[in-house]
# Entry
Amino acid sequence: MSTRRNELTRIAARLFAERGYHGTSTADLAEAMGVQKGSLYAHIESKADLLWEVARDGAAAFHAALDQVPEEGPAVERIRAALRGHLRVVAEQLDTATVFTREWRYLEGERRDAFLAERRRYEERLRSLFREGREGGELRTDLDDVAAALLALSAVNWAYTWLRPGADTDALADRFTALLLDGMRGYATP
Amino acid sequence: MSTRRNELTRIAARLFAERGYHGTSTADLAEAMGVQKGSLYAHIESKADLLWEVARDGAAAFHAALDQVPEEGPAVERIRAALRGHLRVVAEQLDTATVFTREWRYLEGERRDAFLAERRRYEERLRSLFREGREGGELRTDLDDVAAALLALSAVNWAYTWLRPGADTDALADRFTALLLDGMRGYATP
DNA sequence: CTCCGAACCAAACGATCGTTAGGGTCGGGA
DNA sequence: TCCCGACCCTAACGATCGTTTGGTTCGGAG
# Structure
């Protein structure tokens, strides 16, 4: 409930994304809160807690976006929906997405393990869309679905470096999907 | 010439890639060199020098790989060669490539500006391959070449997170190229 | 009026940060 | 033999790190 605690988490996401986890000091966080650095410890137990919270928020957001993808229907449409959802999260929660994608590795111990498990689960959920598309005959039967999933995953995981808030992420996801589907080859090839 | 100085740069690349620039202390570097931390300053003027050197090595390696791509010939083959070259550099110099892709942003001042210029130049060189492919009629004339280049660039820029040394990068690049060219759509679509 | 909990402050903790100072060792060229 | 340059040492510098302590302020519930 504590508003102030949520504010701190939001600020931590922003600074961790901007300067990196190790590049952000508790003094930086305190200054952004308009507070003495010792006062932060009324809200947290350690700086590492903030990284953990932001990373978990990111994982939750991406999983929630995937949850919105229909379980049935054409694989092509489900893939498009998954890419739309991922890019939308990146654009709407850029700081959190950046920490999720780049700063999570400074987690330690069990938290690191737990995060990695969630991350792998997300990737596996996305990968299965491509596999199902191939197995269901909707995509080409000789599809290299591992490479295709990796290509899509790379596109969305790299997005935090160039995607700006307010971008039309649905259109971007559709452009990626169209390319993945039909490729770049000319209509008439010898 | 100084062997020891090169060794320090190599070690810096490894530790910066493993723990991040701000997560690596001069004591860490010294320990990896088997030396007291003060002794490092017989070889460098500052820790930032090491980041700069590794980042520049990375930029040079990627540009050198692009230089090997023929200026003439089919755009498809040139794109394939460019992806092969990039992935080969990542696999063969994983630490340097990681710093080039992820840690460069801790450069400051002129060095940061200079690095960003080199990085943009590299991206532009790669982008032009796709544009030329479309303009030359080899790729589909309605190709979304900006998105296609971004997709390829995302794939290779994300590679440092999963690519392991010793992998068959030529085969991987060819799988990506094949997907980008022909897409995932089934042969017979309604 | 009292009490509580949330929020914050000022000050300090020991540890570690990147860097500097001054000196020592040792092999090879003049 | 002398000297140089490369290399490394020990010790310390001031700054900053994440965190702790003890005390204060203040709005709202009882």
